[in-house]
Amino acid sequence: MSPPAPPAIQFQNVSKSYRNGQVRALDGVSFDIHPGEFFGLLGPNGAGKTTLISILAGLARASGGSVKVLGHCVVDDYAAARRALGVVPQELVFDPFFSVRETLRIQSGYFGVQNNDAWIDELLAELGLSDKANANMRQLSGGMKRRVLVAQALVHRPPVIVLDEPTAGVDVELRQTLWKFISRLNREGHAVLLTTHYLEEAEALCQRIGMLKQGKLVALDRTSALLSGKAATMLRFKTDAVLPAELASHARVTGRIVQLKAHDASEVEGLLARLRAAQVPIEDLEIGRADLEDVFLEIMQGASA
Ligand SMILES: Nc1ncnc2c1ncn2[C@@H]1O[C@H](COP(=O)(O)OP(=O)(O)OP(=O)(O)O)[C@@H](O)[C@H]1O
């Protein structure tokens, strides 16, 4: 019998401190990403997502623990680990003197991939960049540069793709183009690690989700299990009135829209009775399933990091 395939990515007890230990960006983070899996890493600003990805990509050194890509340690076996990874960074970094095609050829050379033009053409077509192939990098708009960053990360056909907030500030068209292409690569067997603040994207795309808070992993489960656990029902309505304190303390309020979570129908009835008793007039009442944003907020409020 052949040995089981190693995880696409394995984080084992990863810690990272800055400023002589005053900032603990990561505190004993352990989880695996399976081969072929689409995995979402979520967390509020400063939770440690970029730090974890920087350690994975070999751009930062962990203070403790280990990270492996397809069984290759990112420190001891850096070249093999890096070759297995395609990392789309959060920041737009590029060399302004080259054309798009030159940039992708140079990146291919960096990974020792020869005669890569057929794949480069496919990347350009899939990412809507074909007519920009000969444009200079500095002539491109921000969204176009981001597309090149994605192409650059994929130029060596890495089995593990890492996307650090790839859709921050990009338009709807690029998001759709990007997700269509990344989903295709995932169906073809590439593992994907995505960090994003767009929770509806994570809900739609990711099979499993991990949540970080202040450097600790506070949730890890299948997306469907996260959605059906906890408070699975949400009561949504509009009101101009101020909620009584005992309801306001666990309501999500956005302008006139109020959302209250409930575990079952009897709890919904109880909430409505309390609103009536407090003489809170409500309009446009809806009762629906909790979405990932509801689950995320509940976990972040409840988790003690
Ligand atoms: N070079 C650094 N020096 C000192 N502290 C740092 C450094 N890089 C990150 N940190 C700190 O480490 C913590 C984690 O930051 P990180 O950028 O990993 O969070 P994040 O989850 O990616 O946040 P965001 O969603 O805002 O991108 C924060 O407290 C941050 O201030």
From TrEMBL:
Presence of the UniProt keyword Methyltransferase in the record: no
One of the record's GO molecular function terms: ATP binding
Pfam (any one): ABC_tran
Keywords (A to Z) from UniProt: ATP-binding, Cell membrane, Membrane, Nucleotide-binding, Transport
Top-level taxon of the source organism: Bacteria
KW ATP-binding (keyword) present: yes
UniProt domain ABC transporter: residue ranges: 9-239
Protein name: ABC transporter ATP-binding protein
Originating species: Roseateles paludis
